[in-house]
Amino acid sequence: MTTLSLELPDGRTQDVEVRLLLNAGYAGREQDEVQAHIAELAELGVPGPATTPALYPVSPYLAQQVSEVQVQHGRTSGEAEWALVITDGGVLLTVACDHTDRALEVHGVAWSKNASPDVLGRKAWRLDDVRDHLDQITLKAWVGEGDTPDTLIQDSSLEALLTPDYWLDVLTERGLNAPGTVLISGTVAMTGGVNQFARSWKVEMADPVTGHSVDVQYVVEQMAEPIG
């Protein structure tokens, strides 16, 4: 089972054994826009969800803090997200990049979420410390053709997504609000014309009130061709 090690603003480190990993989907706060996005995806062959917002269970070992993601082909990409990490001492908030298999996505979104890791940041904030200004926190992603992500592909804020407290209520209703649960938020819109099938990804969550930021960065490596 994966253990996350998260550095808090006071310098202390919190280790969390991941027991349950969940990926939210279609989780924009404006559900009219979400429905329009579902229609766009349907034209690409991606099946729509039975309900929105959606919530997909993911194998807990896919919660990773890595600098390299290995994939099977060239049609995979990340997604800028935040992550809730529930601990014995409270709820932490960090940044995440949900690396998704776009070729597999047309056969099933849940399948595509289990094909690659959710890469989480190594630093985190206590949710209680930022709850009163969450909508001001920015969420951005960059991609790069080389090892350095240098092209902005996502530029939004937490205001665009359903809140952490919304999801904590959902977890509580289902008996899942317990230490070791990690929930990834769902993502924000990508900039048109930017190649998402890039070699490198960086996601940053920045707090203008405290001046703190947390980020995650990795490169994508394609595996060798299978034999047989």
Question: If you had to describe this structure to a student in words, what would you say it looks like?
Answer:
- The chain is globular and about 50 Å long.
- The strands form 4 sheets. Strands 3, 4, 5, 8, 9, 11, 12 and 15 form an 8-stranded mixed β-sheet that branches. It has a 5-stranded mixed β-sheet with strand order 6-17-16-13-14, with no helix packed on it.
- Helices cover about 15% and strands about 40% of the residues.
- The mean pLDDT is about 95.
- A hairpin with a 6-residue loop joins strand 13 and strand 14 (about 150-155).
- It has helices at about 30-45, 100-105, 110-115, 125-130, 165-175, and strands at about 5, 15, 20-25, 55-60, 65, 70, 75, 80-85, 90-100, 100, 120, 125, 140-145, 150-155, 180-185, 200-205, 215-220.
- The protein is built from 5 helices and 17 strands.
- The protein has about 230 residues and is of the alpha+beta class.
- It has a single domain (about 5-220), classed as Alpha-Beta Complex (Fumarylacetoacetate hydrolase, domain 2), CATH 3.90.850.
- The relative contact order is 0.23.
- InterPro entries: DUF2848.
- It comes from Arthrobacter globiformis (strain ATCC 8010 / DSM 20124 / JCM 1332 / NBRC 12137 / NCIMB 8907 / NRRL B-2979 / 168).
- This is DUF2848 domain-containing protein.
- Pfam families: DUF2848.
Q: Biggest β-sheet, characterized?
A: 8 strands, mixed
CATH architecture: Alpha-Beta Complex
Give the rounded overall mean pLDDT.
94
Indicate the overall shape. globular
How large is the count of helical segments? 5
| Helix/strand/pairing category | alpha+beta
- Enumerate the spans where pLDDT stays under 50 for 5 or more consecutive residues: none
Give the % helix: 10-25%
Task: Enter the CATH topology name.
Answer: Fumarylacetoacetate hydrolase, domain 2
**DSSP strand (E) fraction?**
35-45%
Q: How many E strands?
A: 17
> What would you give as the CATH superfamily?
Fumarylacetoacetase-like, C-terminal domain
Q: Termini, distance in Å? A: 31 Å
The tally of domains stands at 1
CATH class: Alpha Beta
Estimated radius of gyration: 17 Å
